[in-house]
Input
Amino acid sequence: MLPNGDPAPPDGSLPEPALRGLGKRPFGVYVHVPFCATRCGYCDFNTYTAGELGTSASPGSWLEGLRRELDLAARVLGTPPRADTVFVGGGTPSLLGIQGLSSVLDAVRDTFGLTDDAEVTTESNPESTSAEFFAGIRDAGYTRVSLGMQSAAEHVLAVLDRTHTPGRPVAAAREARAAGFEHVNLDLIYGTPGERREDLAESLDHVLAAGVDHVSAYALIVEEGTALARRIRRGELPAPDDDVLAERYEQIDEVLSAQGLHWYEVSNWASGPDAWCRHNLGYWRGCDWWGAGPGAHSHVGGVRWWNVRHPARYTELLAHGDSPAAARELLSTVDRQVERVMLELRLADGLAVDFLDEAGQRQARAAVEEGLLDPAAMAGVNGRFGRCVLTPRGRLLADAVIRRLV
Ligand SMILES: C[S@@+](CC[C@H](N)C(=O)[O-])C[C@H]1O[C@@H](n2cnc3c(N)ncnc32)[C@H](O)[C@@H]1O
Ligand code: SF4
Output
């Protein structure tokens, strides 16, 4: 077995056992677009502004690298499975425009092919979209759009360094729906310093007015090394408060549920199973996916690897015929079991009780007594085995519950 973070082989090859179940589980392709117009102060994603990149990399050189990586993926996987899901994320994929996003999807189609009902998502920043943009990417084959709204309150957007106006995300979501997108997501961030309960209420009103079928809401994480972390350290802004975050989560869940958007993962709500993000479900259920692009992570049959982060290094390696993988790890059976508990417990469908060892099952029963896991789900119905499903209070303490069960 390889120790964690072993060097990845330059040809990108995978151990034969990892390839055995390929195509039997859903297969996803993630494409990382590492470009943003400006850097938001809270964000530590692997993304770069044109000024930061200078002449070292551009969307053109990145696309060339991406095509090479997808060719390499097809070689490594032998007979590559058709993609059930494609997710173009970032960064800011909408900066690529209709033509750039069409080229990305064509490259995925040419190497993997898509299943007949493939879900094809692109993330987009509201300010770099238009009615024409949505019509163009719908024609190109995208089926789902995820928009970074974050908030509808102007002062909250200012703290987050967002450049769109408060009304733009709703307008963009409506344009997307008018262009034929049935599946549209809005991302919210809650707990930003200075955000009041009524600011979040206004954001939720906007979300509901947009008529979307999916919402992701994330508690603001203060990432080390970001401008936001420095501002908090200097005392210019207060750090997010855990009690406030819990209250805000309850507010979101209450408002969305009342309008028919129900949680299916701790941070995700949707109007029904056909609106669930199948690509993300693939991550949460331990399926296979190839992550292409700088810094992208992949997982195939218990092998996880991740690419070099800088776009210039990424394209350089591929131009020399090498894999862009920086390192990889082979997950042991125990690693995979622990991951399964960590990810499935966050789903509304929960985790089968009998998947836990005896100590874990004891902890699960104690968590029911403490109101953290749902007693009815634990008891099982109609011959269905019991499942560990978080209660609303359990969702607020999901990480702590998970730690007890693994
Ligand atoms: C990395 S962004 C990419 C999409 C797009 N560039 C955007 O900003 O809308 C995906 C989502 O991650 C969330 N996110 C990024 N950094 C975060 C942080 N520090 N805390 C909480 N959520 C964060 C935001 O909601 C964002 O919409
Ligand atoms: S939050 Fe989105 S737009 Fe802002 S820097 Fe991060 S990836 Fe770019």
Observations:
- The CA atoms of residues 12 and 323 lie 5 Å apart.
